[in-house]
Amino acid sequence: MAEFDIDLASARVAEQVERTAREADERFARSGPVVGRAESGDGGVRVEVAPGGLLTGITLSRSALRYGSAALAEQILELAQRATRRAGDRMYHQLAPVLGPDDENLKSLGFEPIPEDDVDAEYYGR
């Protein structure tokens, strides 16, 4: 039976992790920040989120305020969900070439591609 060299195995794993991190860093350096954006049909409400859904920006027009706070809150939540999906799609397309398209970590983090026939796929011109 062959002996297992833990030091060699650890070195190989560390090298692979370093190479993967370097490739991912290079992709993000070329693309810039990954965000998701969504806006209402009339453009009165715009939201921006980071991958994972952290809200990073909201823009409201005066006309958006005329429907009342409950309707506005509902619209912001809906747009934030859409933007989160878009950010997850963009993150998937950044990391899938590095990690592999079937990587379970991508899916577990919510980074999944939006199907081509989905209206949100058209948003980013794919």
UniProtKB/TrEMBL annotation:
The record's region (Disordered) falls at 21-42, 107-126
Q: Which GO terms describe its molecular function?
A: DNA binding
Compositionally biased tracts (Acidic residues): 114-126
| Name of the protein described by the UniProt record | YbaB/EbfC family DNA-binding protein
- Report which superkingdom the organism of origin falls in: Bacteria
Give the record's keywords alphabetically: DNA-binding
Q: Which organism is it from?
A: Amycolatopsis samaneae
Entries under Gene3D superfamilies matching the protein: Nucleoid-associated protein YbaB-like domain
